[in-house]
Amino acid sequence: MSYCSYCRNQPKDSIHHWYHDEVYGKMSEDDNELFGRLVMEINQAGLSWNTVLQKYEGLKLAYSQFNLQKVSMYKEQDISELMGNKNIIRHELKIRSIVYNAQQILEIQKEFGTFKNWIMLQNQISIENWVKLFKKNFKFVGKEIVKEFLSSNGILKGAHDKECPEYLK
Ligand SMILES: [Zn+2]
Q1: Does residue 87 contact residue 79 with C-beta atoms inside 8 Å?
Q2: 168: pLDDT confidence band, cut at 50, 70 and 90?
Q3: Is the sign of the CA dihedral 143, 53, 17, 23 positive or negative?
Q4: C-alpha of residue 118 to centroid of ligand 1, in Å
Q5: For residue 4, is it within any domain?
Q6: Domain of residue 40, residue span
Q7: pTM of whole model > 0.85?
Q8: CA-CA-CA-CA torsion for 75, 77, 83, 88, nearest 10 degrees?
Q9: Which of 1, 19, 50, 122 has the most C-beta neighbours closer than 10 Å?
């Protein structure tokens, strides 16, 4: 079964159904939400998407509703607290990368207005170049993470399969 069919077969109020219909493959207008998607993809590394999505609310709460300003200012104390939070994925390198990436996105905003603008300016580049660009600016951004992040935002095609009602949207 494809990811699309799987999600659409879940109850209407399930997180999978919501994510599939409302988020997946659609570009967000909100930089904090874009950051949240990057946080989700980083957290997924080495785990199943189901595991991460089940922790979505916990992650959002733990990371200040994915507020870039707030996360960028996290200190050692905040990182220790996150390491002790069983509602999230307690992986120190992931946590530290997320804080670093929030700081980097703020730098990008200074130069390009928004993170979204910066993404949209990279016109038609190959996945290899996307990965290079992400590695230059961020941490914990391997090829799969970058690919999933871009698909989740509709930058890379193929988020939805051809039979999916979201495919043509
Ligand atoms: Zn779909």
Answers
A1: no
A2: confident
A3: negative
A4: 26
A5: no
A6: 27-152
A7: yes
A8: -70
A9: 19
Burial environment of residue 95 by CB neighbours within 10 A (0 to 12, 13 to 18, 19 or more): buried
User: How far does residue 3's CA lie from ligand 1's centre (Å)?
Assistant: 7
Using the predicted structure, report yes or no on whether residue 103 has a pLDDT greater than 90: yes
Rounded Cα gap, residues 129 and 85, in angstroms: 35
Token digits for 132?
Answer: 């290079």
**Contact criterion met (CB below 8 Å) for 39 and 70:** no
Which CATH number characterizes residue 140's domain?
1.10.340.30
pLDDT at 123 over 90: no
Q: Is residue 66 part of a domain?
A: yes
34 part of a folded domain: yes
Residues contacting residue 33 through CB under 8 Å, at least 6 positions apart: 66
Q: Which residues contact 107 (CB under 8 A, 6 or more apart)?
A: none
Give distance in angstroms: CA of 12 to centre of ligand 1.
14
Q: Give the Å distance between the CA of 99 and the centre of ligand 1.
A: 31
- Tell whether 164 is covered by a domain: no
Q: Number of folded domains in the chain?
A: 1
CA of 10 to the centre of ligand 1 (A): 12
Q: How confident is the model at residue 84 (pLDDT cuts 50, 70, 90)?
A: very high
Query: How long, in residues, is the chain?
Result: 169
